[in-house]
Amino acid sequence: MKTSADLGITHCNQCGECCRRSSCHLDEKDVSRIAQYLGLSRREFARQYLQVILPTSESAAVKPLMTDDGCVFLKDSKCSIQEVKPKGGREYECWTVQPHASRYWWPKHGLSRIGVVIK
């Protein structure tokens, strides 16, 4: 897979392509910061905007929902929460796979801290 350097991209050109392909992983601080920015409790934010990815029976990742157009926060090819953009989005390198995405995996029992309930 080509890297951003192979493509001559040394910084984000704000094309929105990465957000059309996938939403980024969130850590607990991201959840709190974005919920506050949107004027929501963490539980309400989780209910309205988050999806849980279950890579193993013990851990999970939390990401914004995807729509037909991409990440739920992508508006007119721009991040509508740019001021509080998740760490995973800020660290994402254009056109590459995040090598350390597993650091965003949560123990399932820890998801309740941010209002995510797995049934």
Describe this structure in words.
The chain has one domain (17-112). The protein has four helices and seven strands, in the order H-H-H-E-E-E-E-E-E-H-E. It has helices spanning 17-21, 28-38, 42-49, 87-91, and strands spanning 50-53, 59-64, 66-67, 70-71, 74-75, 78-79, 106-107. The chain has a three-stranded antiparallel sheet. The chain is globular.
Order of helices and strands: HHHEEEEEEHE
The order of strands across the largest sheet is 1-2-7
Q: Number of helix segments?
A: 4
Give the number of DSSP strands.
Answer: 7
Integer-rounded radius of gyration = 14 Å
Structural class determined from secondary elements: alpha+beta
Secondary structure: helix percent: 10-25%
Strand content: 15-25%
Report, as a whole number of angstroms, the end-to-end distance: 37 Å
Shape: globular
- Largest sheet geometry: 3 strands, antiparallel
Average pLDDT over all residues: 76
Domain tally: 1
Poorly predicted runs? 1-10, 95-99
Summarize the structure in short:
This protein has 119 residues and is α+β, with helices and mostly antiparallel strands. The chain contains four helices and seven strands, in the order H-H-H-E-E-E-E-E-E-H-E. The chain has one domain.
